[in-house]
Fold each of these.
Amino acid sequence: QVQLVESGGGSVQAEDSLTLSCAASGDELRLYFFGWFRQAPGKEREFVGGIGWNGGSQYADSVKGRFTISRDNAKNTVHLQMNSLKPEDTAVYFCTAGIYWPPRDYWGQGTQVTVSS
C-alpha cells in the first residue's frame, strides 16, 4: 500500500508559477513510478506526466516545456513545478503511484489549481 498526500494548490494568475508537492508513504517506494494526473470540470482525467526511480520523466504535450516533475527519493516526495500557467491548466491535480506506466494504482486526494486570465 502507498499513501499519497498532495499540497501546494491554489489560485494564481496566467503566466504565474506554482509548485505542487506529494508526500508518499509505504514500503518499497523505489519500485514505483510516480505521476500527476489532472481533471478539469466536465473533462476526462488527463495524464500530466510522471517520473521513474532514476529521474527519467515524460510529459503530456500540453505541458511539455512548462511543467517539470522531480523526485526526492530520500524524503519520499514528488514535486510538480508548473511555469507559465494558462487558464486551461485549471483542474484538480492528483498525485499517483504505480508499478506500471502510467502510474495509476494509488491516488492522492487531489489539490485544486485555478488559473485566472
Amino acid sequence: QVQLVESGGGLVQPGGSLRLSCVASSSLFRIYAVGWYRQAPGKQRELVAAITSGGSTNYADAVKGRFTISRDNAKKTAYLEMNSLKPEDTAVYYCNAKYTSISDYWGQGTQVTVSL
C-alpha cells in the first residue's frame, strides 16, 4: 500500500503560478508511473500530465507549454509546476501512482482555484 499526499493548491489570480507536490509513503515510488489528474465541478476526471519511472512525460493539450511535471525519487515526491494559470484550470487536482492494475493509488486531492 502506498499513501500519497498532495499539497500546494490554493487561490491564485489568472496568469499566476502554483507548484503542487505529491509525497509518497514508499521508497518503491521510483518504479511507479505518476500522473496528475484534475476534476472540475460537473466534469469527469481528466489526465493533466504524466511521467514514467524513466522520466518520460506527456501532457494534455490544454496545459502544454504552461505546466511541467517532474519527480524526485530520492524525496519520493512528484511535482506539477503550473504557470500562466487560467480560470478553466480551476479544479481539484489529484496525484496517481501506478505500477500495475493492482498497484494503483490516489491521493486525497488539492483544490486549485484561479480567480480574480
Amino acid sequence: QVQLVESGGDLVQPGGSLRLSCAASGFVFSRYPMSWFRQAIGKERELVASISSSGAVRSSADSVKGRVTISRDNDKNMMYLQINNLKLEDTALYYCHQGYRADDSSIWGQGTQVTVSS
C-alpha cells in the first residue's frame, strides 16, 4: 500500500522553527522526486519546496526562499522540511507529495498542521 505520513506540525510563535517529516512506504522512494505543498484556509494549495530523487536538486517557492530547507534520506524512506523564522502567513496544512507538480501523481499524505501565532 502506497502511503505518505507527515508529522511535526505544531503551534509556534512567529520567528520560531519547525522540522516536518514525511514517512514513505509502499513504493521505491529513491526513484521519485518529492515535494511539500501547503494549503491555508480559503486559499489554493501551493508548492513550498521540491527535491529530486537523489536529493541533489532542490527548489523552493519565493515565499519561503531562504527560510526552508528540504531534504531526504533515501535509506530511511524519509523526507524533511526545515522551516525557520516562521511567519503568520506560514500557517497552513502541509502535505507531502510524490512528484514535482501537484498533477504528477495522486500520492499525497494526510497533512500536518502548522500554526504560527503569538
Amino acid sequence: QVQLVESGGGLVQPGGSLRLSCAASGSIFSAYVMAWYRQAPGQQRELVATTTSGGSTNYADSVKGRFTISRDNAKSTIYLQMNTLKPEDTAVYYCYARHVLSATNYWGQGTQVTVSS
C-alpha cells in the first residue's frame, strides 16, 4: 500500500510559477514509476509528466519547456516545477504511482492549481 500526499497548489497569475510536491509513504519508492496528472472541469484526466527511478522523464506536449518533473528517492518525493503558467493549466493536479512489476497503481487526493489574473 502506498500513500501519496500532494501539496503546493494555489492561485497564481498568468506567467507565474508554482512547485507541487508529492510525498510517498508505505512502500519502496524506487520500485515505482511516478507521474503527475491533471483534470480540468468537464475534461478527462490527462497525463502531465512521468519520471522513473532512473531519472527518465516524459512530458505532455502542452507543458514541454515550461514544466519540470523531478524526484528525490531519498525523500520519497516527487516535484513538479511549473513555470510560465497559463490559464489553461488550471486544473486539479494528481500524483500517481505505478509499481514497475505488478502495475499496481495509486493516486493522491489532488491539489488545485488556478491560473488567473
